[in-house]
Design brief:
This protein is of the alpha/beta class and 617 residues long. Among the domains are: 167 residues, 3-Layer(aba) Sandwich (Rossmann fold); 134 residues, GMP Synthetase, Chain A, domain 3. Helix content is 41%, strand content 18%. It is built from 22 helices and 26 strands. The strands form 6 sheets. Strands 2-1-11-10-12-13-14-15-16 form a 9-stranded mixed sheet, with helices on both faces. It has a 5-stranded parallel sheet with strand order 4-3-5-6-7, with helices on both faces. Strand 13, helix 15 and strand 14 form a beta-alpha-beta unit. It starts with 5 loop residues before the first helix and ends with a helix.
């Protein structure tokens, strides 16, 4: 699998300059972590209403048993398994078990449609399929007969499962334990056979356009990213992270490797729906999330104030302006005027303390990536005492390329390149990356791999950006998402969408207008805020459809858009809008699992609405 990209990646592999005490493979990462940080609570999960712990010793023993269990089923180095499950200790143990066995795992998002699951299994040639439970199986069972390479299903939760060729993870571990007793030296032999440049995982890009591609990431890629990112922060065994983002995405998975490497006590959220409860229970010191999470927390806090009284809304808005002013001055090391300090103290008591309490009250910092974080949200949270570090990366770069840190950050940027990684800007503005974290290539797609690299071996990200004098990177847009009006003007949609999302009445927004006379916006309103607005204005509006069609509501949001984008050039200004009744979701195929908009899907799905925008009036 490596030969097709050997020339492109040779330079990247050679750039890796790990210290002698740093692991070279994921296997070594787990072994070194257990040796150095032998915790009684390495992995923590909630069961039957109480938090349970798995010790470092038990974690390692179970990893070895899973590796040997896979060996007992006939899997050998280089074979593939697929993994479809929500975050849990079993996910981490299953992943690590594959790495110890030299087996390549293929994580699948739990939100993917059955036909996409089928495509990934067929393309990867997975022989074993790890599944969470009966419910997961029922959702995708219709496509399994088409997946001829699958030999056995292994369930994390085997309750009520009735299907052929299926066993529980517990039974797999038992088989491994028996093989360990029979051949005590085998696990050592399997571990010894692992090389840094071996493929560790195939992660299929969800991509906003085109067919999914299997990104081949090696042990060296993932280790380089974990170690080179970790040195930018101050992780210690005293830290307590809460895992919420899907481990099937390399962002959360890489974070998990960082946590384990640094001996933290990892806690797994029960689900996205219960994450808010888990945050209060666990009181994490570190939280990794995508911008949408912080946007929703802010919107919820704003709504809570609005539902109480107009006075509470005014106090909330006043506090937010204080937070942004305070954070801005702090960011640029300007003196804090005495009056602002007093106001900040009052705002902290009335508003900020409640925001911090939502996250458990003990956060040292949050790390975000996967999409753009608006300056307003950044300043609001930082001013409220919740430090957010924005970074940038891609699946193909394992993923982190740049990050802001507690010691080195800059507003409006995604930070500086991490250790051992280099970035440069091509003549057309595209960001290019070189480093030990850059993928080996796309599985069975030599042409796509070749197109992804420059002649001198740098990876083409597909993103447009600028590097300032301090070395901080600013992302301006996706290269493929830039569109041109019929007047020949190029427009970057993302920054304009961020401006519009600053409105409390807007939940989601997608800019359209390729080859049209002007840009327009599809907007999903914040219906909770609109309900409160309608109540205050005595408007008799009940359903989402009624809100989207009501002239007063349309006019309200048109005015919001105009005010928030007044400083744009004339050709960039949104001339018309259309309100959508339903939120854009991953399940509907409109968003990627990291909540980025799939623009091609949106344009196809809402083509009639878009056409109406440009034909009316």
């Amino acid at each position: 699998m490596q030969s097709q990209t050997e020339n492109q990646t040779k330079q990247n592999v050679q750039r890796n300059s790990l210290r002698a005490d740093e692991p070279r493979t994921l296997t070594e990462l787990f072994l070194k972590a257990v040796e150095k940080h032998n915790r009684v609570d390495a992995l923590n999960y909630k069961k039957d209403g109480a938090w349970q712990a798995i010790s470092s010793t038990e974690m390692l023993s179970r990893i070895e048993n899973i590796a040997l269990g896979l060996y007992s089923l006939g899997l050998r180095k280089g074979d593939r398994i697929a993994l479809l499950a929500a975050n849990s200790p079993e996910w981490t143990l299953g992943d690590a078990g594959c790495q110890f066995a030299g087996v390549i795992d293929v994580p699948i998002y739990t939100t993917l449609a059955p036909n996409s699951v089928e495509y990934i299994i067929k393309d990867s040639g997975a022989r074993i399929f790890f599944l969470q439970d009966k419910e997961t199986f029922e959702r995708i069972k219709e496509v399994l007969p088409n997946c001829s390479t699958i030999e056995k299903l292994i369930f994390f939760d085997f309750t009520d499962v009735e299907t052929k060729n299926a066993i529980s993870l517990e039974k797999l571990e038992k088989a491994g334990e028996e093989l360990k007793a029979e051949k005590p030296f085998l696990i050592g032999e399997l571990i010894k056979a692992i090389e840094p440049n071996d493929v560790a995982t195939l992660i299929y890009t969800s991509g906003t356009t085109g067919e999914p591609k299997g990104v081949m990431l090696s042990h060296a890629n993932l280790i380089a990213n974990a170690t080179n990112t970790a040195v930018e922060f101050t992780f210690t065994p005293k830290d307590k992270p809460l895992s919420v983002l899907p481990l099937s995405h390399v962002f959360e998975r890489s974070a998990m490797y960082v946590y384990i490497l640094n001996g933290t006590g990892v806690h797994y959220a029960e689900s996205i729906e219960k994450a808010a409860d888990n945050l209060r229970e666990v009181a994490p010191t570190i939280f990794v999330g995508v911008p949408r999470i912080f946007e929703k927390v802010y919107a919820k806090a704003k709504l809570k104030a609005a539902q109480k009284s107009q006075l509470k809304v005014k106090i909330f808005d006043w506090a937010i302006e204080i937070a942004k002013d305070y954070a801005y001055k702090t960011e640029f090391k300007q003196p804090i005027p005495h009056l602002l300090a007093v106001k900040h103290s009052i705002a902290d008591h009335l508003v900020f303390s409640k925001l911090r309490a939502f996250f458990g009250g003990k956060l040292r910092f949050c790390i975000t990536g996967g999409a753009a974080l608006s300056d307003d949200i950044y300043l609001t949270f930082n001013g409220a005492g919740i430090s957010i570090m924005q970074g940038y990366g891609l699946t193909e770069t394992s993923p982190v390329v740049t990050t802001n840190t507690p010691f080195n950050k800059r507003l409006g940027t995604v930070g500086k390149a991490i250790r051992n990684v280099e970035i440069r800007i091509a003549d057309d503005g595209e960001i290019e990356v070189s480093g030990p974290n850059v993928m080996l290539g796309y599985y069975k797609k030599a042409d796509a791999t070749k197109r992804a690299f420059t002649e001198d071996g740098w990876f083409r990200t597909g993103d447009i950006g600028k590097i300032d004098k301090g070395g901080f990177l600013k992302i301006t847009d996706r290269k493929k998402e830039l569109f041109k009006t019929s007047g020949g003007k190029y427009i970057a949609p993302s920054p304009i969408e961020q401006m519009i999302k600053a409105s409390r009445f807007v939940s989601q927004v997608v800019l359209v207008g390729n080859e049209r006379k002007f840009p327009a916006a599809l907007i999903v309103p914040n219906f909770e805020q609109l309900e409160n607005y309608a109540r205050i204005k005595n408007l008799d509006i009940k359903t989402s459809a009624e809100f989207c069609a009501h002239p007063r509501i349309v006019n309200l949001i048109e005015r919001q858009v105009a005010e928030l984008t007044e400083n744009l050039s004339r050709f960039e200004k949104v001339k018309k809008i259309a309100l959508l009744e339903n939120e854009l979701t991953v399940e509907s195929g409109e968003l990627t699992p990291t909540l980025k908009v799939k623009r091609r899907v949106i344009e196809e799905k809402y083509c009639e609405i878009i056409e109406k925008i440009y034909t009316d009036g």
